[in-house]
Design goal:
- With 318 residues, the chain is of the alpha+beta class.
- The chain has one domain.
- Strands 3-2-13-9 form a 4-stranded antiparallel sheet, covered by helices on one side. A 4-stranded antiparallel sheet has the order 8-12-11-10, covered by helices on one side. Strands 6-5-7 form a 3-stranded antiparallel sheet.
- A hairpin with a 5-residue loop joins strand 2 and strand 3.
- The radius of gyration is 20 Å and the shape is globular.
- The N and C termini lie far apart (53 Å).
- 33% of the residues are buried.
């Protein structure tokens, strides 16, 4: 059977949430009559920097339409993300307003949000699709992570997967895991479709939340009065052994660092080890920019321009 393409859905979605981007708007644009709050958006392709309302940033049509691993066919990743974002908006605002202490507690709603944000962006899925297409099935062990507790409760569901002969371009659908593995052993490539991407998104977010991120030691960073944090089209990203664009399994590496800016003044950084950790907002912004794909956004034109200039030397937090 040749691979079928389903009717394209049409829900307009933000791959980086509006509520989150509002945490990085220029202070002078807030609470001003007849003025939409704006961020300074920097293109990593052209270097252009300009004002942009969060509502007009990072939108895709139909990107999260579909059940994405939920049992009910009427379920939607888009609606699930909406609930996650609503709860995270309250939790991040409370966290950002809380006093700085030697110890701190991050609400579960924030961990859930950054886990999904790490897994949900188009730039991240472009990397995944490239890894999957060019991977050898015999290399799976190096890329895989032992399943978290509870995965045995997941129900199996038969769904067709699309595979491609890279030599001829022929594509067919297979239903059984045995057939899929057999074609992969013969060198056929897995062609991910929307339903595959959404299921993988759901699973990867869960792995981040219960396996990858809890392994790390996290610190809260607060930018001084004259400094700012920025964010990007990835939002939550990481580097391991000096390399960007690494699979999540690379978070096991002792040098791995995860950066998760929450607002223009507060960021979380995860790493292995609990020794003294000193880093400046500029260094965090350099890494955020190095790991971004298309754009970065921040509360001032100066900080965005600085981050773009610093990008080439940014793959380590040192």
């Amino acid at each position: 059977m040749t691979c079928q393409v389903k009717k394209k859905p049409n829900t307009r979605a933000h791959t980086v949430p509006r509520f989150y981007l509002r945490g990085f708007v220029a202070p002078e644009s807030e609470n001003v009559a007849k003025l939409d709050p704006f961020v300074w958006l920097g293109s990593l392709t052209t270097g252009d920097i300009g004002r942009r309302s969060p509502k007009n940033i990072s939108t895709e049509i139909g990107y999260y339409d579909g059940p994405g691993g939920f049992e009910s066919a009427d379920a939607s990743i888009e609606r699930h993300l909406s609930r996650i974002e609503s709860e995270a908006a309250v939790a991040i605002a409370k966290f950002a307003a809380s006093p700085i202490k030697d110890g701190f507690t991050v609400a579960p709603e924030i961990w859930r949000f950054i886990s999904w944000q790490a897994a949900r962006t188009p730039a991240w899925f472009e990397l995944i699709e490239d890894w999957i297409y060019h991977s050898d099935s015999r290399d799976a062990a190096e890329m895989a992570e032992p399943p978290p507790e509870g995965i045995e409760k997941i129900r199996d569901r038969i769904r067709f997967l699309c595979v491609e002969n890279p030599d001829t371009g022929e594509r067919i659908e297979v239903a059984s895991s045995e057939d899929f593995a057999a074609y992969r052993e013969r060198g056929w490539k897995w062609i991910m479709r929307s339903e595959d991407r959404l299921e993988m998104l759901h699973m990867q977010a869960w792995y981040f939340q219960v396996r990858h991120f809890p392994r790390l030691s996290w610190v809260r960073l607060n930018a001084p009065d004259t400094d700012w944090f920025i964010t990007s089209d990835r939002g939550v990203s990481w580097v391991a052994d000096g390399y960007a664009d690494t699979p999540p399994a690379a978070l096991r590496h002792p040098s791995a660092v995860v950066v998760a800016p929450l607002t223009r003044k507060v960021a979380l950084v995860g790493r292995h080890g609990t020794g003294r950790f000193e880093v400046t907002p500029r260094q965090v912004n350099k890494l955020v920019t190095a790991l971004a794909t298309r754009w970065i956004a921040g509360p001032s034109e100066v900080v965005v321009a600085e981050a773009i200039r610093d990008r080439s030397s940014a793959h380590r937090l040192t």
